[in-house]
Amino acid sequence: MEIDDVKISRKKPMYPVGAGLLKYLRMYQRDAKLPLAYKDLLNFTETVPVMDKNGNDTFWETPLYPPYLQDQLYEGLKVIYAILKASGNTRIVEHKIIDRIEYCAFGNTRPFRVRIINRLNDVYDYFYIKQADASRIYGLELEEILSPNQVNYLADRDTLVEEHIVGIPGDVFTKGNISNPDYNQTRIAKEFVKFNERCIISLLGDMRAYNFVMQITPDFDDFQFRIRAIDFDQQFYEGNPRVYMPQYFKENLPYVKLAMEHLNDKTVLQYQQEERSSIVHRVRSERHRIKDLRDASQQQQLSTDANIAILREGYASFYANDAYYKCRSMTDIVELNVKNVIRQVKL
After folding, report:
1. How far is 252 from 299, CA to CA, in rounded Å?
2. Percent of the chain with pLDDT strictly greater than 90
C-alpha cells in the first residue's frame, strides 16, 4: 500500500435528481412527501459556531430562527423523523422534542444535523436534512447494494433526509483507539483492505479518515470492526483513479501503516478476494435493482467528459484491461468493475 497527496475538486457541482432517478426512487420506496423542504431551514437570521469540548471549532454552526418560525420547523422535523423511522407513524414522536439544529456550510450539500430527544428517558438520536444531489443518492444506493451496510434515507424533490450512521470518526479512532491493546490490529487492517476494495469497485471517492466511521462490535472472544462511509458527495465524479482508493490519502496513513505491519501480500489478496466474493453474492441477489439503478443513471450527466476519459484510461491501466476504453459514462465503469469481479470469482 502507498500514500499520496490526492487532489480533489472541492467544488463538485450539484447534480439535480433527474427523471430516471426519480422513477427509481419511487419504485424502491425512497421517495416521500415531507412537511418541510431543505430551503425552509435556510431561513435563519444568524449562526453561532459550535465548539467541541476542547474549545476547537467543529465547522458546524447553530442557526438561530425567529420564535414563530422555530416552532413550525421543530414540528415539521418531528414528522420527518417519524416518516424516516416509522413510515410516518407519529406516535413515536409524541414524547420527543427537537433539542437543536446544527448547520455545516463546509460540505457540498450544506447539511443540517438535527438532534431529537425522548424527554421521558433522555435518549437522543440524530438525522440530517441535505440538498438532494444525484451523485450522493447514487452513492447511497450503491452502498446499499454492494456493501454489507444498510442505509436509510428519503428524498423529496430538492430535499434529502438521511439517518445518522453511528460510529467513531475514522480520524478520531486513529488518535485514541487504533492502538488499544484490547483490539486485534490485524482485524482493523483487514477491514481497511476490504473497505479499500469496495471503494475501488463502486467508485466512492474522497474516503479520507474524517469521511468514514469505525463501528466496533464486541464478540464472544474478540472485537469485530466495520468501516462505514458517511460522505457520498464524491461518488464517481473525479477522473483520478486514486481518489477512489483510500490507501492513497495521507489522512489514512495510520491504517496503511497498520496493514503494512500486520499483513503481507498473500493475506491482502485473500481479503480482497473475500470482499469481491461478498459483492458478487450481493449483486446476484439485487440484480434487478442494480440494473434499474444503472438505467436511471445513464439518463443524466454525472461527471464531465474529461473526467470520464481520464478515469477509464486510469482503470484500463490499473486492471490491465482495454475494455475500459469502451466506457462512455461513470456508471459504465462501475458496471465493468462489477462484471470483472464476477468473472474473477468464477475463476
Report:
1. 35
2. 83
Whether residue 187 is found in the same domain as residue 328: yes
Q: Give the burial class of 200: count Cβ atoms within 10 A of its Cβ; 0-12 exposed, 13-18 middle, 19 or more buried.
A: buried
Asked if 130 and 110 count as a contact pair (C-beta separation under 8 A), the reply is yes
Write out pLDDT tens, residues 197-231: 999 999 999 999 999 999 999 988 889 999 999 99
Parent domain of 298 = 168-346
Identity of the residue numbered 151: V
25 and 126 in a single domain? The answer is yes
Residue 182 is given by DSSP the state T
CA distance 7 to 36: 36
Dihedral angle of Cα 269, 275, 280, 285, to the nearest 10 degrees? 170
The Cα–Cα gap between 138 and 224 comes to: 28
Q: Which amino acid, one-letter code, is at 301?
A: Q
Domain final position from 102, 129, 163: 163
In whole angstroms, give the CA distance from residue 314 to residue 81. 42
Tell me the chain's radius of gyration from C-alpha atoms: 21
In a domain, 325, yes or no: yes
- Does residue 180 lie within any of the structural domains? yes
Q: pTM to 2 decimals? A: 0.92
Output helix, strand, coil percentages for the chain, rounded to the nearest 5.
Answer: 50, 20, 35
pLDDT given for residue 290 in this prediction: 93
Residue where one domain finishes, among candidates 134, 163, 192: 163
Both 173 and 283 in one domain: the answer is yes
* DSSP code of residue 183: S
DSSP string, 58-109: EEEEEEE--HHHHHHHHHHHHHHHHHHHHTT-GGGGTTEEEEEEEE-SSSTT
Pairwise pLDDT comparison (11 vs 331), residue with the higher score = 331
In the structure grid, which three cell numbers stand for residue 94, read together?
Answer: 409524541
CA 306 vs CA 9, 67, 237: distances in Å: 13, 49, 10
The predicted-structure confidence for 232-290, as pLDDT tens digits, reads as follows 999 999 999 999 999 999 999 999 999 999 999 999 999 999 999 999 999 999 999 99
